[in-house]
């Protein structure tokens, strides 16, 4: 949840959630769904000109349906993300009550005192966008989540010229994704991941289950193509996966030739003709993969010699839950393949490594670098990269800090009371 302020107005960019976290640093009390505390802006919601959602990942969109009644501002986003949002609003009884303005690629819209332009970028789902936020006193390039991927699996490849053009327009500040700022080199392409998964599936004999993040539509399309290439039927287990594929269908991002069988039919087909994709890569106890591990799934039973592929990184804090799954599969002689130990690349991050960060700073040429979206060590590493390629000034701060960009750049520590609130306890 980012707030950009100018001339007595605010623009909110993204409104996400996180899972299985405390609301107080260091606390042992863990809550299932947690969001940023919106009190600062909710107490002056008449100053909130609009809410912009950059893409449909939960850490950018997941809190909006719950927090919108406290904000009451129009929402601006692209069609795919708007469809995801509408489904979330339906779950809380807000369908038709939230004004959603759909925008197009490269469109520029005036929102209060801000002019916002949507800049296409590559990530792991349809319609990811960075933002150019302009005011009479300065311009901010907000990267959102991104990577440099020429073959992203969904949408167009990365277009370098767009960012070189930004570099010619005197960007005051760049707020930039820091998630992989500690990782050397260049991130893997989704196409490389597709090839690695294809080779891995080809080497198996019986049923194969791939588990990945439900929102990674590029990966889901890749798995569909792998099913076609290996003469297997594609089955999808988990409500969030089915929902995301449904959104992709409605918005024209799901290839019409990728067919999905009825889940109940999988049990009647030969083992070597099944490729399933399932929720639960982080060991969630109610997810489809956990029920497969327990042998309690109503539609599919795994047997000795079947294979489960984890096409996702294990998020720190989830190791115990994932290890429990691995033990259950091992006890039943079901092979498991993790991305960390796989012979082939079977997972690709959606965030930029060091080389990509350097390139972006060199193209955009901001006067000020403001690393965001990461822990303190990631933010510091991002700032050092910006400095190494000639960015004159950088600010590294914490939640609640105010970055004043004009007329005199400065960082005001703890200017706003920030924190977390519980969306769902369990």
Residue share in β-strands:
15-25%
How many helices in DSSP terms? 12
Global mean pLDDT: 96
Model regions low in confidence, pLDDT < 50 over at least 5 residues:
none
Write the CATH architecture name of the largest domain: 4-Layer Sandwich
Helix/strand-derived category reads alpha/beta
CATH class of the largest domain, please? Alpha Beta
End-to-end span in angstroms? 23 Å
CATH topology of the largest domain: Metallo-beta-lactamase, Chain A
Secondary structure: helix percent:
25-40%
Whole-number count of domains: 2
Query: CATH homologous superfamily of the largest domain, by name?
Result: Ribonuclease Z/Hydroxyacylglutathione hydrolase-like
- For this entry, what is the oligomeric state of its chains? single chain
How are the strands of the largest sheet arranged? 8-9-10-11-12-18-19
β-strand number: 22
What gyration radius follows from the Cα positions, in whole Å? 22 Å
Outline, from the CA principal axes?
globular
* Biggest β-sheet strands, sense, barrel: 7 strands, mixed
